[in-house]
Every structure is written in structure tokens, then in C-alpha cells.
Amino acid sequence: MSLVYKICPAPLWRAAEAAGRFEGSEVDRADGFIHFSTATQMRETAARHFAGQDGLLLVAVDGDALGNALRYEPSRGGDLFPHLYGPLPVAAVRSVRPLPLGPEGRHLFPDGDAP
């Protein structure tokens, strides 16, 4: 199983859980796909796109369960990022953990979710 990660505001994710699927954030919908990060990319993603934001969740997803709808495409600096073309079924989620801010304003990642 290869895990991919979505950083998501808690209320948006809780609505997805209730619906059984995540349709993406406003940015995802505007771009036409759901943005994910790999384990090595998620810290930089948090720093670049979620700096100073509290109330976030780190959603770990079984990338293999998403099939061909998950594509790795060049993005930031030519690095390949996972993008999901279609909704994310909640059944593919392996864990949902808080992503709190630490005292220096950086996100504190749960043990075991990042290298």
C-alpha cells in the first residue's frame, strides 16, 4: 500500500465523512483534481499552503485503492505530486489525525506519518 496525504480543514473533512466522499477543497475544485502529497512532500506543503492555519487534519489515503484516477504529475520544482481526478471515497482513508500548530507556528506531524 502506498500512502498519499491530504491536509484538510477539520470542518471540510467532517462533512466529507458524513457524505462518504470528499469532493475536494475550493482550490482542488478550481484546479480540476484533488491535491495530495507524498510523505516526503507533506511538510513543505503544510509550510507553503497552510502556514499558520490551525484546525487542520492530516488524512492518510491508500493510493493503490484509488486506481488510475490517481496520477503523479509534475508540480513544484518539477517534483511529481499525486493528483486525484475524481472524488475521494472515505473508504480509501487509512487514518485521520490532528495537525496542530507548534509553539513556533509550524505544524506538528504525528509520529509515523513522515520520514
Automatic annotation (TrEMBL):
Domain of life of the source: Bacteria
Protein name in UniProt: Dihydroorotate dehydrogenase
